[in-house]
Amino acid sequence: MFGVFRRKLVGETSSASIVGRSWRTSRPVASTTATCFASEGEVLLHPRTTGSVRSICHFTQPGATVDLRPLREVMTSLQPCISMQMQSRMFSSDSGDLVDAVVPFMGESISDGTLATFLKKPGDRVEIDEPIAQVETDKVTIDVASPEAGIIQEFVAKEGDTVEPGTKVAIISKSAEGAAAPPKSASTEAVSQPPPPTAEKVEEKPKPKVETSPVIEKPKPASPPPPKTSASEPQLPPKDRERRVPMTRLRKRVATRLKDSQNTFALLTTFNEVDMTNLMKLRSEYKDAFLEKHGVKLGLMSGFVKAAVSGLQNQPIINAVIDGDDIIYRDYIDISIAVGTPKGLVVPVIRNAEKMNFAEIEKEINTLAKKANNGTISIDEMAGGSFTISNGGVYGSLLSTPIINPPQSAILGMHSIVNRPMVVGGNIVPRPMMYIALTYDHRLIDGREAVFFLRRIKDVVEDPRRLLLDI
Question: In which domain of life is the source organism classified (predicted)?
C-alpha cells in the first residue's frame, strides 16, 4: 500500500486522507507532509524535511483512526539528540569518517593570508597535528595542521587562494577506505579502451593519366631588406626572455613599510668606524670556555647589543618615538635584530636587553634566528621593538644607509670587517676595521645626540672593559 499522508492545522479539527479514505480528529495538529508506506498493518512516516527522522505508527484496518500523539512525542524527543550529535562533530561528515583541515587563528592583527604551498599530496598518510599546508601572511608563515590521523582525500582550496581563519583547506579520511582512488595512468586507460574498428579497405581503381603541359613559374621579386633602426631607438629584450612572478605577501608588506618610512621620517645618516681588534681578541681568548659553560658560541653580535644598550641609556631620546604631538619615552630597551630569510626580511625582538648578559643575548639571538629561517617564528616574537640593529656585514656589505623600522626612531647598521692601514701611536699598522652607520629621525633626534650615541658604540666595542667599569 502506498499513499500520501497529509495533515493541516484547522483550529479545533483536522482532516486526513489516505488514497481517498478520510477521517477527522478533534485536536489541532502541526502541518506536515509525509510519504506513507504500509505493509501488513504498519505505516512508515518519512517527513519531507531536512534532518528528518523515520517513525512508525500502527493501525489495524485500512480507514481506521490513527493516533498522532505518539508520532509527535517521538519527533520531539529525537530533535535534541540530533542537535547534540551535530555539535559534537564539528569537523565530521555524515559518515563520521571524514574530517576537515581548516586554517587556524593567525593573530589579532591578521585577518587573512595566502595559501602558499601544500606540503602533502592527495593520498598521502598524515598524523595528527602534522602540517599539510602553509599560509603566508604579512608577517609570518603559518602551518595548517591535520586535526586527525588519516589519509588526505582531496584539497578543497588551491595554491594562491586568499584564505581566512576557519577556511576549509583539505578533507582527510580517518580510514583508508574513504580515501580517493589514485588517478588512472595514461597507459592503463589506453589498454582498457577498446581498439577502434578497422575501416574496410576500399580498392580504388587507377585513374587515367592526363597529359598536362609544364607550367613555367615566374621568378618572385626579391623581398625588400628590413628597415635599419637608428642608433637612438632603444633595443628592448624579447618578451619570451622575461618572467612575471607575483610578489609574496611578506615582500609586499616589507615594501609598504619601508616606503612609508621614507615618506614619514626625516631620515638622516651619520657614520663612524670601529677598530675591532679588542673585541675579536676577547672572543678568541674566551670562546672555548664560553661555549663549555653556556652551551653557545660567543659572537660579535652580543657585544654590539650591549654597546647599543649602553648608548640608549646615555641618550634616551634615541629610544623615544613621536606620537602625534607627543614624545613617548620608553623606559625599557627591546632590540630588534634584522634577519634575512629566503622569504623576506623579518625583525625578531630581544625583550629587556638591558637585563641580559652576553650569554643570554647569544642564546636569544640563536633561537630567534633559527625560528626565522625555519618559518616558525610567531607574531608576538616580532611585535614591538624600540631600536633595530641590522648586520649587512654577513653578506659582505662595506657601507650602507639603513632605513628606520617604524614605529622606531633610529637604526644601527653594521658592516663587514676589513683590514685597513691605520695610524696607531704614530705608526701605520693593519687593523680590522668596520664602518657603522646610524640612521635617525631628524624630526626628533638632533645631530648632537646621534653623534654621541654612535661615539658610545665605538668606545664600548673598541674597549669592552668600559662595560665592567660603567665609564
Answer: Eukaryota
Query: Cα 470 to the chain's mean position, in Å?
Result: 45
Single out the residue of 311, 387, 317 nearest to residue 347, CA to CA: 387
- Cβ neighbours for 52, distance < 8 A, ≥ 6 positions apart: 46
Mean pLDDT of the chain: 76
* 447-462 helix and 277-294 helix, angle to the nearest 10 degrees: 60
The span from the CA of 51 to the CA of 46, in Å, is 11
Give the C-alpha separation, 150 to 125, whole Å.
6
439-463 per-position pLDDT tens digit: 999 999 999 999 999 999 999 999 9
Residue 245: the pLDDT is 86
Per-residue pLDDT of 151-186, as tens digits, reads 998 898 888 888 888 888 999 888 765 444 444 444
Dist CA 379 CA 254 (whole Å): 15
Active site residues: 442, 446
Question: What is the rounded average pLDDT of the residues 400-411?
Answer: 94
Cα 201 from chain centroid (whole Å): 63
- Contact between residue 361 and residue 304 where contact means Cβ atoms under 8 Å apart: no
